[in-house]
Each structure stands twice: as C-alpha cells, then as structure tokens.
Amino acid sequence: MDNLLPASLGPFPRLRGPLLLGLVGLLTQCRNPNRFGEELFPPTPTRADTLYLRQVRQVFLPPPSTKKAPFVFIGQLEDTLIGQYQAGWATQFALGAENVQFYAQELVAVDSVVLEVFLASSYGDISVPLQVRVSRLTTPLSSAQEYDLNAAFATDGQSLVAPGRDTLAFTTFLPGARRFPLDTALGWFILTLPPSALASEAAFQSAFPGLYVEARPFVPGAKGALYTLFPRSPSTALRIYYRERLNGQEVPQRYDFYITDTCTWAYRLVRTPSAPPPLRDQLEQDSTLWGQRLLVAGGAPVGMAFTLSGWEKLTRRPVLGARLVWPGDSAFRDAYTPFYPRPNSFVLYADTTAEAASASWGFGEFFGDSVVFDLTRPVQEIALARRSPPNTLYLWLAGRTYTVARWVGTGPASARPPYLVVISAEP
Q: Are the C-beta atoms of 324 and 372 separated by less than 8 Å?
C-alpha cells in the first residue's frame, strides 16, 4: 500500500497513517457504484395496505333506450351465461334534399335495389347461417318517443330480400360492408312517389316509414350470432339503381338514401332465458351466489357495485401506487372462445351508473385471468384529502350497451376475493 502513496509524502510520515485509512474506506464504499450515496440518501420506507371490498352486489340495469344508438344489433344467439338474444333494427332513411324529383314519367326500369350495411363486430357462432329478412315498416318511427330493448315495430311481414341472397354467415369475420339485394318493387314505389311526398324529409318518411332488418338461423334451435351494425357509416345506405330516358337515350342513374341526424332509428334486443337457467338468471334469482361469483355483461347491462373500507389507513400518506385486482372465476375459464371472447376492457365509475367522464376512475385490463385497474391517482387524491372517498363504485363493460360480451369474476366470499392494494410512503 505504501507504493500507492505519493513520493512527496516521504518527508511527512505522520500523514501516511490517516491517508491510508481514508483510502481504504473510500475503496470499501465504492465497491458497488450503483449503491453510491445510499448512506447519505437512504430509500424511502414504504408500506402496503389492503382495502377490502364491502357490500358487493350485482346490478341489473333496466332496458336502455336504443333510439339513435351509435351501434345497433341484428341476429340471434344463445349463450350459456346470459341466455338467448334475438335482435332487429328499425330505421328511417333521409331524402337528402327538399323537392327531390325522380321524373317518374321518364323511368324506364329499376335494375336493382340494394340495402348495404356496415357490420362492425360479431359475437357468437358466426359459422351458423342466418336468414336475413328486410320488411317495410307500416308505422313511422317517432323522434319524440323512446324505444327500449323490448320495443315492437310494426311491419308488413313480407321479406324484400332476393331469394338466395339472404344468407349471413362467416368463416372469419372481418368488419366491412355487406350488400343485400331487395325486391325492385321497392324501388318503383319510391321513385314514383308523388311530388308532395318528396317535398320534405318529414313528408318522405311519412310516405315511406323505413325498413326493419332481422336475421335468424335457418335451422330452428341453432345458436347463431349477433352482429353489430354501424347506422351512420357511409357504407350503410339504401341504394336504387335505375334507368331514365333523357333526350331519347336510356341513362343509368343511382340514388342513395343515407341515415342522417334527421332520421330516427332504434333496435330491439329481446333476451329469453334458456334451459337450464343461464348464470345471469341464477344470479338475479339468488343473491347468495354473489358471494362466490359475479357477472359483468353487455347488451342488457349487468354490472357490479361495491364499497371500500380502510381509507383511514391512508390519511396524509403519499401514495406511490394503487391497484384494484379482480380475479376471474376459474370455473368459467373454458367459456371464453374465439366465438365468445372475453371483453377487451372494463370501466370503473364512482357514485353513479351513468357513463359520465367526471365519474370515471379508469379502465381495467387483463393480467392473466384477473382484471387490474390502476387507481393510483384517485386514491392519492383521497389520501391527501383532495377528494372524498366514493360512496359506491360500479364495474361495467366499456361500451356496455353496444356489446353482449361477458365475464365472470370472483365474489367476496370466494377463495380469491377482489381487493385494492395501496403502496404508500412512510411519513
């Protein structure tokens, strides 16, 4: 070690001892450069607190309004967890302008009438062929009336879909437009309406109330699927292809009737319990089952409500992280298939069942079979007394009205109960 000391210290032997000890101490402290300075700035002590759920229960919402919904349903399916659904869609069409003229006296022929719809998603066995039926409404829809899932729509009962072109089935579903040729008599009817019926949107919708679209399996008892349809897509329209005689020549023409804000539309989504009773009905009839498992489902929305106890543990503590963990019920692991997938995400709301941004606590994602919510920010605000603890929290599917996806979570009395774990810094 003496060889490491500068030669200039040779005349000062009394300095060699202290300098040698200091050098040894420095080398000892620097043996791990990643931990340099921990003695001066030790890590903050942390603690973990668990807040348990109380008063956990199922919430069965009343049938929601379907008027002018951004997405609608057609089809039929049977799900062992939520039951059988049958869906149909009623809609008006916009005239597009006032005082439209089709020059019926010059009409030569109606080549085709096509109902084109944009299918946004599917749920159920898409390989089961469904027969699409399109009927004329006999009673105009009302912009002042509300329509819920059980609404009935009056039709003439005659399907306009061309024979052999009424099948809806997929091997692999891809979102996109689907075209259904209709009876050309519908085109003749519209193109030969009197000028008074084409003078305004209201007059047109009174003369032609619109269409009702539904789809059911060809084979009775088949499960089938539900399809989500986007009414406001440019690909959703009633299109008429026809020919007029202009200046002695036949000229091909086309007129598109879209669905705009001036239209009213609504859908019907009727749920029928199957045998044996699906889980949804079991939970609705027996509240003791809520202790073991709970259901979250869309369509006719089903969610969870609960409160949290133990907020006093967090008083004035800096919260470093907070996670709500809701394990899935392993008994229903096989219920999720490519035809009946798990939901993509969940949403947590406070003190309300409305989908209001001001009440949102965030979205949950799957980690394994559990749904995990990052609640660090709202929990920190509660710990610092910047907001009050919520009276009730609600767990729903994201877009709960426009999907029939479902998931089964554990209840508070199960072996893996849900919990909120909070990591905070010690004062």
A: yes
